[in-house]
């Protein structure tokens, strides 16, 4: 019957029958196009259900900086001193953020304006993350095709299009660094693997620029700068060294490092920070492999080459160059001597844990600055925000403590008390505040059995001030916390230096102000 239908068609239509390869190409392109549309559309729910808006505080700050960039240009943005953030210290914006997200959105906005499309910069910021998430599916397809085949590429593209974790960081309105950084991350990996497979200098250059874009967009570039040398090291120890690998890694590392240094927030960390030293070590190791390969080519005799290696290693050991890290080196030597899947795993495990511990040590040593508070509320309200403990309180200053997200009359769990542990951990270096003083059996509690310091701390008092007078649920005593299912431990809360200024009807937001004395001081706040 199918033959009868085909015979009944005009000759012009019968001639349009595609060959097998053409049919496969058409199906592949159609499937990829559907995946692209799906990746973009599934992230538009908040816009279609509610309205086009920027979500959360950090994305709003990013939008504010992007708006300044689009209105004043890159030079003004790069040297912008924002006096309204971290007042009175201010903030040098260009040197304290990753500008890749802002520059990307500003360029897209300028492109749309050049095409005579009157689009506000806010709409561009809202849709930037879904747009790059859709582009990520194309990169995933190319990456899967490079590693295996087109089928694997389509599966990879489909999975990344509907990945819940990725969707949560790339929905419309989530104008944060991850919106473009995940795209840059996968693009860098694809370009580097492509450069290794082909040995092409052009692909290596593209990989370096992809790495530069990743550095400009997100601090997660550290993952790349540690994973690539680890990958190269595995290839070296498994005897897979080649000129293709040499060209790909050296070009990506050297050019990528020089480009990354142009980001003021990164600076010279590639040559100063311990979390970047693995990449430098593999870079020098590659030079050793290249030199040995060159000597082997010149000698053109296996026996002469072994003699050269024996003499060279003897000289190096004699001068003591191998004295450092002799324990680790001996362990690696025995792993390499009996190379198998298990020993390769041990080597990989040792290297990854070393890099992880070094990164953790550096991050633990550097304490987060206390001056980074209030930037989001300040930009949202278009007002100056004072840095904690930066100015003495003045009698005529309009100073208030804004405390939000209590939800004490609801069952919503994400209250300020739920985040109390972060406040204690931020002050972990303080000789006064110690986390065990606020714990009971390893837990933060607000009931009668809570730690004395917990019941007497300022955040607890501001959260539960006058809460002991309320009956929140029938059959429960006054001061019953519906979220935690307990009766609060301190109902008789007295405030000495603060007084309640405003509380919403559902106790979601509470505002307190400084209680000034007759002499105009706070008496010790």
Automatic annotation (TrEMBL):
Reactions performed catalytically? a di-trans,poly-cis-dolichyl diphosphooligosaccharide + L-asparaginyl-[protein] = N(4)-(oligosaccharide-(1->4)-N-acetyl-beta-D-glucosaminyl-(1->4)-N-acetyl-beta-D-glucosaminyl)-L-asparaginyl-[protein] + a di-trans,poly-cis-dolichyl diphosphate + H(+)
Cofactor field: Mg(2+); Mn(2+)
Claim: Transferase is one of the keywords in the record: yes
Sorted alphabetically, the Gene Ontology cellular component annotations on this record are: endomembrane system; membrane
The residues that cross the membrane are 25-45, 92-112, 124-144, 150-168, 180-205, 211-234, 246-265, 277-299, 311-334
Query: What PANTHER family has UniProt attached to this entry?
Result: DOLICHYL-DIPHOSPHOOLIGOSACCHARIDE--PROTEIN GLYCOSYLTRANSFERASE SUBUNIT, DOLICHYL-DIPHOSPHOOLIGOSACCHARIDE--PROTEIN GLYCOSYLTRANSFERASE SUBUNIT STT3B
Please give the name of this protein: dolichyl-diphosphooligosaccharide--protein glycotransferase
Q: Which organism is it from?
A: Zizania palustris
